[in-house]
Design goal:
The protein has helices spanning 7-22, 28-36, 78-89, 123-132, 159-183, 205-220, 249-257, 277-284, 310-321, 341-360, 364-372, 376-386, 391-402, 410-420; strands at residues 40-43, 96-101, 136-139, 187-191, 196-197, 228-233, 244-245, 262-266, 290-294, 328-332. With 430 residues, the protein is an alpha/beta fold. It has one domain: TIM Barrel.
Length: 430
Amino acid sequence: MFSEATIEQIEQRYEDAKKQYRALGVDADQAIRTLAETPVSLHCWQGDDVRGFELQPGQVSGGGIMATGNYPGSASNAETLRRDAEKAFSMIPGKKRFNLHAIYAETGDKAIPRDEISAEHFANWMAWSKKNHIPLDFNPTFFAHPKANDGYTLSHQNPDIRKFWIRHDLACRKIAEAIGREQGEPCIVNHWIPDGAKDQPMDRMSPRKRLIEALEQIFSENISPDYCRDALECKLFGLGSEDYVVGSHEFYMGYALTHPQMLCFDMGHFHPTETIHDKISAIMLFKDELLLHVSRGIRWDSDHVVIFNDDLRCLFQQVVRGNFLSRVHLALDFFDASINRIGAWVVGTRATQKALLAALLEPVQLLQSFETNGDGAMKLALLEELKQFPMGAIWDKFCLQAGVPAGAAWIDTLIDFDRNVIRKRSSSNG
C-alpha cells in the first residue's frame, strides 16, 4: 500500500537536501550522526496498558493511573511484551533503551510482595536486554496496590505503610544498580510518587514533611551512581489527586536543587496552556542532568501518543540550542489502549526523533546572530522558511542507514502484524 522509495531516490534527495542545508552552515551528515547516537527509552507500559505481571489476590484499585480503550491483542505476559517491543524496534531507527516498571517482574507462579522484589525477578529482562543491545531503565511502582488505595504511599500518615513503600523503593534502586552493572552503564530510575488528595486537605504540610523524610531514607542507601541514576518526577495533578499533589512541581524543584537527584519534567504533567521548553534552560543552570518524559497532554494529564507538533519541536529546539543534549535523558511516557499498541510505540518514537532532527538542522549560529544584531524580522523570516526545507529527505537517509523502513513504508509492516498476529491473539495466550 505504502511504497518505499528506492535507495537511489533516497540518496539523490538527500544530496539535494544536504546542499540546501549546507548553504545555511548546517552539516546534515553530522545531524544524522548525532541523532543516531542519541538514545530514546521506550516504555514497557504502552504494550500492556500499565497492567504488569504482578500476582496479587483480588482486585486492586489503588492507583492514580489509568489506560483507556480496548484495542485487541494486549500483551498479557513478559514474553509477548518482549516480542512486541522487538517488532517496534524493527521499525525505529537509532539507539533505543527500554523502560521497566517494578510490576513487570517475573516471579513465576509465586506472589512476591513489592518490598521483597529483587534483581532475580528481572533476570529474563536483563538477558533480553543484553541479547538485543537495548539498555534498561527502571521505575518503582507506587500505584495499583492495596497499600495505595487511599492515595498515599511514602507520605502516608501510617508509619507501617510508609515503611513498606520505603522498602519497595530501596529494592527498586538495588534492582536498578544490578541492571546497570550488567549492562555496563547507568540505569535511569524515575521515582513518581502519585500521593495526593481528590479534594481539599486540611493539612498540606505534614505529608510533604513525611515525603522528605522517606526520600532521605531511600537515598541514604549506598547505591553506586555509576550504575543507578535517580530522578524525581513532579506533577500538577492526576486522577484522584486533582486538588493536592504532595510531590508538586515546587516540592521537587526545591528537593532537586538541594540534593543530587535529577528532576524529571513530563510534557503531559503541566497545565494545558503551559509547556516545558522554557523550563529547560532555567533548571540546567543549576543541575547537571535532566530526565525528560516525552508525552502529549490534551486538556489534562492524559499522556497521549506523541506526535510531531509544535510542543515537541519547541522542546528539542531548547535542548539543542542550549547544547544540553549530552546532559538530557529522553524517555517516552504515554499509553493508549484504544489503538494498536505497537503502532503507538513507533509513531511516538519516530516523532520524537524527527523533532530532534529538526532542531539539529537549525542554523543556530546564524539565527542567533540575527537576534544579537537586532534583526528580528530576518530571524523570524528564516525560521518560517526552514519549515519548508526538505527535512524529510534527511530523515529518510537516517532510516536507510539504520536499516528500517523510510517514509510511510513501515505502516505496511504494522498492518500485516496487526492482521496476522495482534488480532489473532486470545486473552489466554497473550
